[in-house]
Amino acid sequence: MWEDRYRASDDYLFGTAPAAILPDNPWLVRQGASALCVADGEGRNSVYLAMQGMQVTSFDPSPTAVKRAQHLARDAGVVVNTHVADWDGWDWTQQYDMVAGIFIQFAGPDFRERQFADMQSALRPGGRILLHGYRPEQVGRGTGGPPNVENMYTEALLRDAFAGWTIERCCAYEKDQRAGSGHVGQAALIDFVARKP
Ligand SMILES: C[S@@+](CC[C@H](N)C(=O)[O-])C[C@H]1O[C@@H](n2cnc3c(N)ncnc32)[C@H](O)[C@@H]1O
Asked: Ligand 1 pocket, 19 CB below 6 A?
């Protein structure tokens, strides 16, 4: 489905600017540190982190999206270690300083539990997980995200999923998004950043 969506247009579906959580929180960047961007789509977030000096690896199952990510990196003069891979095809034993999951709410509750466990295992101790997505209030707005309320994040859900971690940011807010044609309009968002014990 996602490959079809990306192929339907020559434009970057979510634009080329990073999701707001990254430029709005520059403290997330550590020069030279490693980052994994999961389900990274067309590379807007991985390329931004590479431009800030991080060593970035990314994957997405859509070959069209990954090709666009490679073009974006080349145009920006940075290197992103891109891969065409599905979630279950990724080697989750490789560890990173940061793992970023930005708009990865294609997962319902069972898959999400596995998603979070996989992302945890891909973090070195002290490493940072970053999640950015939609809250239940987003469903029905038609400004982005899946229609499934059970796929949405709440502060309680995320705090519970990462109990025992050091929470650095857990913030629910409203924002007018302008990201390509995929995310356009007022959105109910949530940011979550925590460090693995
Ligand atoms: C809403 S897009 C977000 C893309 C990117 N993170 C961004 O913020 O621009 C969701 C992405 O999840 C990817 N995706 C969907 N199912 C997946 C799966 N089973 N494993 C890995 N990625 C998947 C899609 O290909 C798509 O690029």
From this structure: yes
What residues have CB less than 8 Å from 164, skipping those under 6 apart?
Answer: 197
The total number of structural domains in the chain stands at 1
169 - beta bridge partners?
A: 193
Query: Cβ(146) to ligand 1 under 6 A?
Result: no
Is the pLDDT at 182 greater than 80? The verdict is: no
Q: Residue 123 has which token pair?
A: 């973090």
CATH number at residue 62: 3.40.50.150
- Is residue 175 within 8 Å of 185, Cβ to Cβ? no
189 burial type by CB count under 10 A (0-12 exposed, 13-18 middle, 19+ buried) = buried
3-state secondary structure 44-85: HHHHHHHHCCCEEEEEECCHHHHHHHHHHHHHHCCCEEEEEC
Look at residues 103, 38, 49 and name the one whose alpha carbon lies nearest to residue 80. 49
User: Nearest C-alpha to atom 3 of ligand 1 is from which residue?
Assistant: 103
Q: Which two tokens stand for residue 178?
A: 């302008």
List pLDDT tens digits, range 44-59: 999 999 999 999 999 9
Give per-residue pLDDT as tens, 86-139: 999 999 999 999 999 999 999 999 999 999 999 999 999 999 999 999 999 999
C-beta 103 within 6 A of ligand 1: yes
pTM over 0.85? The answer is: yes
Task: Provide the domain limits for residue 175.
Answer: 2-195
